[in-house]
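[Automated response] Your request has been received and processed.

Submitted sequence:
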Amino acid sequence: MSHRNPTNLMTALLIAALSLGFTDPVHDQSARGVKLYSEGDYAGALDAFDRALEQQPDSPLLYFDRAASLYQAGMFEESAASYAVAASDPALAAPALYGAGNALAKAGDLEKALEAYRQSLTLAPADEDVKHNYERVQQMLEEQQQQQEEEQQDGDSDENQEQQDQEQQQDGEQENAPPDSSGSNEEQQDQGEEGEQEEEQPQDQEQDGEGQEEQQPEQPQDQEPQPGQVPPSIDGMSKEDAERILEALAEEEEAERNASLEKRKARQKSTGKDW
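Generated structure:
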């Protein structure tokens, strides 16, 4: 980027002021500032120009010199502001706008720098330094915009990749999750049919193979014995013991019937009646 040294312009303006016979304190401070600036003492030059501005605060020329000192001191934003004030003078507008463009570019405000160069070229279209800086800043803006677009694309790509990773993770979690105990209606129906088929299988299938269990005997039914039949056992007695008890009971009943019959006969004899 081209940088025109404002010292020559400042010296010329100072010589012009002296030739007109200005010997007041403002011009004394201005002359001191120019001298210190040419010696590289930019802080001293800035102090001299500020002292002159205290005496003459509306001087575009002093603002121009002050802006040049601020630029060399690395105070680019303040330098651009002082150049903007100096540009109010038509005689200083083109070089002041050029200096403002340089300060704004150094401060990183490329869009405002480009605008300052454009305005300077409008006033001085043949100035090659201004044209060169204008084209350079324009190229820098294009590169900056291209870089921002690439970063945006990279950011979108990263977001898409992150979303795909999350979806894949969710799919993996669903695949690894235990099956739902409730299941679908079709699964429950199929399980019910399988259960019914298992219940319909013959019981003798459970007895296939070696080690088959013996068939269990049928359980006795609770039925009262028929008259004249002797139960197989009563309270643990054998069949023979039970038969002897029944025979004894039958003999006792027979003896009782005979005794009762004898008594009736005796009463009939005494009463003469047979009922």
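Summary generated for your ticket: The CA atoms of residues 158 and 195 lie 53 Å apart. The domain at 7-144 is CATH 1.25.40.10 (Serine Threonine Protein Phosphatase 5, Tetratricopeptide repeat).
If you did not submit this request, please reply to this message.
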